[in-house]
Amino acid sequence: MNAKGRVHKFGDNVDTDVIIPARYLNTASHKELAAHCMEDIDAEFVNKVQDGDIMVAEKNFGCGSSREHAPIAIKASGVSCVIASTFARIFYRNSINIGLPILECEEAAREIKDGDVVSVNFDTGVITDETTGKTYQAEPFPEFIQNIIAKGGLINSIL
Amino acid sequence: MGMTMSQKILAAHAGLDEVKAGQLINAKLDMVLGNDVTSPVAINVFEENGATAVFDNTKIAMIMDHFTPNKDIKAATLVKQTRTFADKYDIKNFMDVGMMGIEHALLPEKGLVGPGCLCIGADSHTCTYGALGAFSTGVGSTDMAAGMISGMAWFKVPSAIKFNIVGKPQGYISGKDVILHIIGEIGVDGALYKSMEFAGEGLKYLNIDDRLCIANMAIEAGAKNGIFPVDDITREYCNGRYQGTPVEYTADEDAEYDAEYTIDLSTLRPTVAFPHLPENTRTVDEIGEGEVKIDQCVIGSCTNGRISDLRAAAEIFKGKKLAKGVRCIIIPGTQSIWLQAMHEGLFDIFVEAGAVVSTPTCGPCLGGHMGVLAAGERAISTTNRNFVGRMGHVDSEVYLASPAVAAASAVAGYIVDPAKV
Predict the structure, then answer these.
(1) Dihedral over Cα of B418, B275, A110, A18: its sign
(2) Within the 364-383 window of chain B, which residues sit less than 8 Å (CB to CB) from chain A?
(3) B218 in contact with chain A, both atoms CB, cutoff 8 A
(4) Is the ipTM of this complex over 0.90?
(5) Tens digits of residue pLDDT in B337-348
(6) Which of B112, B192, B236, B318 is most exposed by smallest CB count within 10 Å?
(7) CA atoms of A134 and A110, how far apart (whole Å)
(8) Rounded CA gap, B226 and B242, in Å?
(9) From CA B413, how far away is CA B290, in angstroms rounded?
(10) E strands along B129-265, which residues?
C-alpha cells in the first residue's frame, strides 16, 4: 500500500480540540465531522485539502481528548496518511483501530515543508519528499499492530 | 527485573507471570466506559460489524454527562441512540439525567472501579481511577466497541516515571497544584506512553479527592495512566463501596523507572496554567496584581467537582461577593455531591456570593454548554485543559487552577493568591 499527496504541515502539540472542536461532537456523521476538520487551527484547511493529501506535524500530535472523531474527521477529509515526530497515545491507537495510516519519523516531521509533495510506502516505511528528493525511514509497526492493520482494523481482528 | 505497579496489574489481567515495558498484550477488562459523545460512535461500530451480544452487561458503564441535560436536538439524538442500545442489551450502568454525574466522579463514588481493577474508557480522563490503585486508561470508541464485545483490550505495556511525594503541603495547596506543578516541570508530553507512578511519605497528606484530581490530569502530561499505591486513605474510601474484589498491587523494590522526580509538597505554591497548554504554569507569586483579569470562573469537572473542591471554594466565597463583571458557575460532579453540598449549606454561600449552581455536567469544560466563552473572554477554571477554543470561541482563553485560586480570583476579578482575598 502506498500514499502520495501534498503536505499540510502543523507544529507541536496539535490537540484533538483543534482537530475537531467539541461544538461539533453532537454528531457521529463522518461527513459532518470532516466538514469541520482542523477548523480551530486552520479555518481554510477543509477548502484546501484534496483526496490523498498528507498531514505532517511535529511532536505529540493528537494530544488531549480521546475523541475518535478526530482521526475520523482527518480520514474522512481525504487525508491518506499522518506523519509526526510523536503521536499522543490515544490518537495513535485510535488511528490504527480505524485504519488511518500514521507514521512516526522525527527527521521527516522536522524537514518536510508545507506544500511539498510526499509519497509513502507503508510496507517499507520509506517516506520520500518528492519536492526535495530526500528519503526518510519511519519506524515500522510491531507485528502485533501490523496484524490489526492487515485485518482491516481492530473489530475485524476480533470478530 | 521487577515490575511497576501498573505492569503487575496488566500482567495479572493478561494471565501472565511477568510483562516487560514495550510488550504487546491482550488483557481482560473489569470495566468498559463510554459517555454520550463516545458511546454512539462505539455503538455504530458494534452494530455495523454485526455484533449481537455484549461480554458482560454489568461491566459496561454508559454515562450521559457531556452535553446533558441535552443541549440541542443533535445531542438529544445521540443520548437517545445510547439509551436504546442500553435498553436492548440491558446495560446495568447506563446512567441518564437524574442518576448520572460526571463519569470520573461517578464511577469511583458508585464503587464501579477500585483497587487492582483494569478499566478502559472512551474518555481520555479515564486515567482518574489510578487514584484508587486501578490500572485505568483512556481509549477511543472502537476500543470501547471491541471491549464491549470481547471483554478484552490490547495494550503496549508502559514503562514508568516515579514521583516521590514528600513534605507537608502548606496553606491552600491541593491536588490541583501538585499536578499542575508536575506538568509544568515535565511538559505535556513528558510522560508520553508511560505510567506516572506516585509514591512517598507525603501521600498521607493527599486525600482521595486530591489523588483523583492528580491521576485525572496524568493524560495532560501524555501519560497512559497515573497510579497511586493503596493505603488506608484508599481503603477507607473503597470499603463498603467498591462492588468488585479489591486487589492491592505494589511495585517491586527493583522495578525500573525511566526517570524519578521528588515533589516536595511543603515548597509548592498555588499554581495556574496559562493558555494554551497545561504546561504553561506560573505560581500565583509570578502573576502581577490585576495582570490577568477574568470574565468567568468555572468550578467543577471530573478534575475538581468533588465535595472537597466545593468546600474549598465555599471557604473563600463565604461572606464575599463576586467582583463586578465576573460570572461564576459551580458544577457539583454527581447528584450525591450536589445533595451533600446543599445539606452543608454551601449553595447558600455560592448563591449569596453571586454564583450559580448547575446540575452535574461536563458542560463548559469542553465548550459544550452552560458557560461557553465569547471571543476575547477569559475564564479561570478548575477544569483540565486550556487548549485553543476549549471553552468556546477560538479567541477565548482558559486559565487552569485549583478551586481555592479560582474562587479567590472570582472575588478579586483577576487571578490572585487565595491567601490575599
Answers:
(1) positive
(2) 366-368
(3) no
(4) yes
(5) 999 999 999 999
(6) B236
(7) 13
(8) 19
(9) 8
(10) 135-138, 152-156, 160-166, 195-199, 225-227, 259-264
Q: Find out whether the peptide bond into B181 is cis, omega within 30 degrees of 0.
A: no
Among the partner residues B37, B189, B368, nearest to A67 by beta-carbon distance: B37
Model confidence over B184-228: pLDDT tens digits?
999 999 999 999 999 999 999 999 999 999 999 999 999 999 999
DSSP class of B158? P
Q: What is the pLDDT of residues B239-273, one digit of tens each?
A: 999 999 999 999 999 999 999 999 999 999 999 99
Name A83's bridge partners: A56, A103
- Distance, in Å, from the CA atom of B61 to the CA atom of A39, rounded to the nearest integer, reads 32
User: How confident is residue A147, by pLDDT bands cut at 50, 70 and 90?
Assistant: confident
Residues of A in contact with B222 (CB under 8 A): 60, 63, 88-89
Whether B300 contacts B329, CB under 8 Å? yes
CA dist., res. B314 & res. B320, Å (int): 10
Residue of B64, B124, B394 to mutate, interface with A, max A Cβ within 10 Å: B124
Q: pLDDT value at position A30? A: 96
Contacts of B4 (CB under 8 A, 6+ apart): B159, B160, B195, B197, B251, B252, B255, B256, B257
What is the phi/psi pair of residue B28, to 5°? -80, 140
B184 neighbors B223 (Cβ within 8 angstroms)? no
CA distance A149 to chain B (A): 14
Alpha helices in A4-48 (DSSP H): 16-19, 30-34, 45-48
Q: Which of A13, A40, A66 is closest, CB to CB, to B394?
A: A40
CA–CA dist B192, B221 (Å, integer): 7
A69 contact residues in B (CB cutoff 8 A): 37, 41
DSSP 8-class letter at B233: H
pTM above 0.95, yes or no: yes
CA B39 vs CA A34, A36, A91, B81, B270: distances in Å: 19, 21, 17, 9, 36
What cell numbers appear for A149 in the block?
492493520
Instruction: Judge whether B194 is closer than 8 Å to chain A, CB to CB.
Output: no
Report residue B21: phi and psi, to 5°: -55, 135
Q: Which of A33, A90, A100 to mutate to test the interface with B (most CBs of B within 10 A)?
A: A90
Nearest to residue B209, comparing CAs of B305, B113, B126?
B305
**Cβ-contact B38, A90 below 8 angstroms:** no
- Inform me whether the pLDDT recorded for A82 exceeds 80: yes
